[in-house]
Design brief:
Length: 370
């Protein structure tokens, strides 16, 4: 439904998670005005990005590496409060403080080529014609479900991290957790305290990281992810190349045998899983902690993918179309990376607008929180 005809703007930002809000902040600093020069569209019902969907047992104190948004620190948060509430309230206060005027809930269905060098952004509230686009849609909307023979025959429950309700629902059950990332280990350690039995299966042996993880290590990890994006390959998460931090809770779980991993099963049976060598495990639940993929289907009409299956970037700019930037994608899919990507994308967008003869207003000072 088109509520207003086609509105013409300089920039459309899709997504109001960390990367989208960072981009909006820097657009304001560059002198662009919300709802006049740019708009931020978010399909979620409220502020908080993907954090609002996190399970209640993921308290703020368990969150690793939450980096503050630019211009406003997150202070005084209760570490025992659910991270969805803490970060949701923080994002909401941030939007209000900097008057970002996020439109929600607004679904973006497609971005197409328009007339006169403009992009047409088709949404549930109408169509926007824009000179540039910053796509900050993250990954939460595209949970990855691997497929294995017999999967449809399983009589128990299958669910993904995206639907994880917390450990309480698994009391007294036999649970298989699939996946060697941070979410998989967190789920497993919680569920093991209430389940009748747990099993941990992964495609590759998990790598636990001991010692500090400083700036040099961080840059090296990001460089590995960035290299794939430059080649036009689908990005891997930064966590996939950093390893799992060996915290006290992880050490304890390893000592208790909770994190004794076995290799991936070969098929799923009506009552559990099986390996070709004859081993079987009976289970009531299979929890797929198998990660997410970039949510960029709205860009499909523009044919931006490379033969390798990914979208090739130069920094945040799409190589096939300089009008489009991806933030929170690949190497910027971390809270600090999203902040930096938002700033870099806006600098590039501003240069493109200036070159097109639309210099816009002079940079302004945004409000400073007190």
């Amino acid at each position: 439904m088109n509520n207003f005809g086609t509105r013409e703007l300089d920039v459309v930002v899709v997504g109001a998670g960390q990367a989208g809000l960072s981009s909006a902040y820097h657009l304001r600093r560059a002198g662009l005005e919300p709802d006049r020069d740019f708009v931020v569209l978010d399909h979620a019902p409220r502020a908080g990005g993907a954090w609002q969907y996190r399970w209640p047992s993921l308290t703020y104190g368990k969150v690793h590496g939450m980096h503050a948004l630019p211009g406003m620190e997150l202070t005084g948060a209760d570490p025992g409060r659910p991270s969805s509430e803490v970060i949701g309230a923080y994002f909401d206060a941030y939007e209000q403080r900097f008057d970002l005027r996020v439109h929600r809930p607004v679904a973006v269905s497609a971005v197409r080529e328009g007339d006169g060098g403009l992009l047409l952004v088709e949404t549930s509230e109408g169509t926007y014609a824009t000179r540039t686009l910053i796509s900050a849609t993250g990954t939460w909307d595209r949970p990855f479900w691997p497929r294995y023979p017999g999967q449809e025959t399983f009589r128990g429950r299958q669910l993904h991290t995206a639907d994880y309700p917390g450990p309480g629902e698994f009391a007294g059950q036999r649970v298989i957790v699939v996946g060697g990332g941070a979410s998989g280990t967190q789920h497993l350690m919680e569920i093991a305290d209430v389940a009748a039995e747990t099993f941990w299966v992964t495609r590759r042996p998990p790598v636990f990281r001991e010692g500090p993880f400083g700036e040099d290590e961080g840059r090296a990890a990001v460089a590995l992810v960035e290299d794939r994006v430059r080649q036009g390959l689908p990005p891997r998460s930064v966590v996939s190349v950093t390893g799992l931090p060996l915290t006290e809770a992880v050490r304890d779980a390893r000592e208790r045998g909770v994190l004794d991993r076995v290799e991936m099963f070969d098929r799923i049976t009506p009552s559990g899983v099986a390996w070709d060598d004859g081993r079987t495990v009976e289970a009531d639940v299979i929890l797929w902690a198998t990660g997410f993929r970039a949510a960029v289907d709205h860009l499909t009409p523009l044919k931006l993918r490379e033969p390798g299956g990914g979208i090739k970037l130069d920094g945040t700019q799409v190589v096939r179309d300089e009008r489009i930037h991806l933030v929170g994608y690949g190497p910027s899919a971390s809270t600090i990376g999203a902040n930096r990507a938002g700033r870099a994308a806006v600098r590039s967008v501003k240069r493109l607008l200036d070159r097109a003869g639309r210099p816009g207003p002079a940079p302004v000072a945004v409000p400073v929180p007190v």
